[in-house]
Amino acid sequence: MIDFKVIGTPILLRNIKKIDPESIEAYIETGGYEALKKALKKSPDELLEEVKKSELRGRGGAGFPTGIKFEIAKNQKETPKFVVVNAEEGEPGTFKDRIILENDPHLVIEGAILAAYIIGANYGYIAIRPDYTLAIKRLEKAIQDAYKYGFLGDNILGSNFSFHLKIKRGAGAYICGEETALLEMIEGKRGEPRKKPPFPPQKGLYGKPTVVNNVETLANLPFIIYYGSEEFKKYGVEGSYGTKLFCMSGDVSWKGIIEIPFGVKLSEIISLAGGVKGGKLKAVILGGVSGSLVKYDEVDIEVDYHSLGRIQAGPGCGTIIVLNDKRDIVDVCENIMRFFKDESCGKCFPCRLGTEASYRIIKKIKEKKANLHDLFNLERICKTMKNASFCGLGQTAPNIILQSLQKFKDEWLSHIS
Amino acid sequence: MKEKFFQKSLIEDLLDEQNKHPQKYLPPKTLKKIAKKHKRPIPQVYSVASFYPRLSLKPRAKYIIRVCENLACHMEGAEKVIEAIKEFLNIDFGETTKDGLFYLEKSSCLGLCSLAPVILINDDIHGNLTPEKVKEILKNYIEKEKSSKN
Ligand SMILES: Cc1cc2nc3c(=O)[nH]c(=O)nc-3n(C[C@H](O)[C@H](O)[C@H](O)COP(=O)(O)O)c2cc1C
Ligand code: SF4
Ligand code: FES
């Protein structure tokens, strides 16, 4: 039902469509759980060094160095510790985590076990949105099989390391993708973000040290542990090592998932997806609707943290929504702000009121009923939201609007009466 | 810890109880029961249940239609598909059809964006929709219901 494409050699999609996702034997045959066997012969300290050396960065959006997160959790004295796999995936345009979980569930499970061994966690949850029913079904079977084979449970493969893993279903709220809201959800509370610091690796689930990682991040660990950080760093470019999944949607001829090594040009990814559909390229929404807006004359840029940083963009969670030149930027922004207005958890004023107020102004602009003063107000509200919101939702909600006000100013002005 | 770890969370219990109800919702007596099981005050359970989009405190229907209007779906004409559903079933968001069969609900991105515009009917995925296609799909559901009753 979904297509894949790859530039170079894949790390994450290496088993996809090649093995039966419901068979642990098939996974083992391709070298699955070899990384775990190798890991158990080494000390957690050694493995931590390997992850740090790999310079793996979080694939959930923020790009935080995974090794450093592990180190903070590892250094905490309190127990028990937890690993939480973030499979809440809610960013519009994003479906990569679902694809990994449906097609290669053991890859993520093995990644979670490795993370647990490194930080010394005995318990882990895969926190997943409830409507990913196929992924949940396959994960359930995969976890059961992993217990049978002794990869999960007490004294894993005869070692003195024990780790239990369980699926935890959420109930569908975009904000629950935010790591502290996710922890609240697992604890059976309203999914409202917590104050940071303390960060989850210090005080997370039930106040205990917890590492929260995106599905795709953890799916990299078996490779890094088995082949080593040197091998991993052969993929990608300096500062952005490894590969990244991108979800293609919008005005492109081909939709699906593309795995690329970091450093490939954005224009190249779009060409691989058959190019722009229905017109010429206008812009790309990169990293989801909370991400960044890349204008047509900027797409000849390498997709890595450093290069994209130069145009105030980033790979984010790996979402590419292509806009052709027939799209109205105001209409796009209206749709985006309506999403944030609906998904704001309501805990803090700048976001609760800001998303609502800016949505109303954008709507008014779209209907050509607004004046320059409204446009000025929109910018002011967006900046306030960015600076004063309590969590990442409100801080990133105005990103595309603010960037479009810079990059497509004339188009906004043409709507003003 | 181990015991607590393997327990179902409050939210999972709410989801599962809701699914058992023919109208897919959480009536007060269910909330009471779950509050007791989890040793939580009823207002707290109510407050949790009201937070999550997938949980409902009001009666819904046998089939819950969840539609996505986020950017990828919007760009492929989601609004027209939704209009067609509303017109065909004669309901708006948050309403149940007279026969109690369908309930229409707005959802945030379903993570099925490559199939845009896309909807879920209970857990079944229907993608690459047009107004015509969605009407056909709904007709099939209605037919299926009729024949199962006979
Ligand atoms: C509003 C909001 C929504 C988020 N949604 C997700 C999500 O769906 N999946 C995810 O992995 N991270 C999401 N994140 C990021 C998480 O808070 C967290 O940074 C991430 O899970 C850390 O994992 P990583 O380091 O492996 O990327 C979200 C953040 C915010 C502020
Ligand atoms: S920024 Fe928005 S989502 Fe985050 S806490 Fe405030 S109201 Fe809630
Ligand atoms: S935007 Fe509609 S399913 Fe993702």
Q: In a nutshell, what does this entry contain?
A:
The complex is a heterodimer of chains A (417) and B (150). Chain A is of the alpha/beta class. In chain A, 43% of the residues lie in helices and 14% in strands.
Structural account:
Chain A is of the alpha/beta class and 417 residues long. Chain A has three domains: 4-232, 3-Layer(aba) Sandwich (Rossmann fold), CATH 3.40.50.11540; 236-324, Ubiquitin-like (UB roll); 329-413, Up-down Bundle (de novo design (two linked rop proteins)), CATH 1.20.1440.230. Helices cover 43% and strands 14% of the residues of chain A. Chain A is built from 19 helices and twelve strands. A six-stranded mixed beta sheet of chain A has the order 1-9-8-12-10-11. In chain A, a hairpin with a 5-residue loop joins strand 10 and strand 11 (292-295). Chain B has 150 residues and is α+β, with helices and mostly antiparallel strands. Chain B has two domains: 10-51, no CATH class; 63-149, 3-Layer(aba) Sandwich (Glutaredoxin), CATH 3.40.30.10. In chain B, 48% of the residues lie in helices and 12% in strands. Chain B has seven helices and four strands. A four-stranded mixed beta sheet of chain B has the order 2-1-3-4, with helices on one face. In chain B, helix 2 runs antiparallel to helix 3, helix 3 crosses helix 4 and helix 6 (78-89) runs parallel beside helix 7 (131-149). The longest helix of chain B is centred in the last third of the chain and has 19 residues, at 131-149. Chain B is globular. In chain B, 39% of the residues are buried. The mean pLDDT of chain B is 96. Bound molecules: flavin mononucleotide (FMN), iron/sulfur cluster (SF4) and FE2/S2 (inorganic) cluster (FES). The site of flavin mononucleotide has 22 residues of chain A, from strand 5 and helix 17. Residues 175, 193, 344-348, 351-352, 389-391, 393-394 of chain A line the site of iron/sulfur cluster.
